[in-house]
Amino acid sequence: MQKFPMTAEGLARLEEELRQLKAEERPAVIRAIAEARAHGDLSENAEYHAAREKQSFIEGRIAELESVIPSAEVIDTSKLSGNQVRFGAHVTVVDEETEDEKTYRIVGQHEADMKKGSISISSPLAKALIGKKVGDSVEVPAPGGARVYEIAGVRFV
Questions:
Q1: Domain 79-155 has CATH 3.40.1160.10
Q2: What is the pLDDT along the chain (157 residues), one digit of tens a residue?
Q3: Is 63 helix (H, G, I), strand (E, B) or coil?
Q4: The CATH number fitting domain 4-74, selected from 3.30.465.10, 3.30.450.20, 3.30.70.270, 1.10.287.180
Q5: 118: left (phi > 0), else alpha (psi -120 to 50), else beta?
Q6: Torsion region of 127: left, alpha or beta (phi above 0 gives left; psi -120 to 50 gives alpha)
């Protein structure tokens, strides 16, 4: 079984999502299907088809979470420190072309969320940053051409 690195917070979020899907979402969609069935002809029943589609999504996500959670290798980031970029680090980078500054946290692939500023350890940016130190520059391949970033800060929380 392949292990996936993950933060304790990321694992807790996935476990909570699985609990919610099993305890709340699955029963609700089963009730919606039963109610839609009661309306008669299923071939032209949009409510029934929508509920079945939602059920399919929920069951797929439950199966995915049930395979990912046991494969998680939790890394305790609270014991990490230093100025070298590693898994769990909050890394502040400056785009050398635009001078834009952004901070990302390097996390496992199943917990990454760009909206929350977390990037997957397997992303091109994280791969370029791993092992580097404050002051280093990294070149990252991007669809519009390579980007160069300078590491302005590394912290572990």
A1: no
A2: 688 899 999 999 999 999 999 999 999 999 999 988 887 777 777 888 899 999 999 999 999 999 999 999 998 887 788 888 999 999 999 998 899 999 999 999 999 998 999 999 999 999 999 999 999 999 998 888 899 999 999 998 7
A3: helix
A4: 1.10.287.180
A5: beta
A6: alpha
Residue 107's DSSP bridge partners are 120
Cα of 10 vs its chain's centroid, Å:
8
The answer to whether the predicted template modeling score (pTM) of the entire model surpasses 0.85 is: no
Does residue 123 sit in helix, strand or coil?
A: coil
Collapsed DSSP state (helix, strand, coil) of residue 64? helix
As a whole number of angstroms, the distance between CA 64 and CA 96 comes to: 39
Whether residue 118 contacts residue 53, with contact meaning beta carbons closer than 8 Å, is answered with: no
Distance CA 137, CA 152 (A): 9
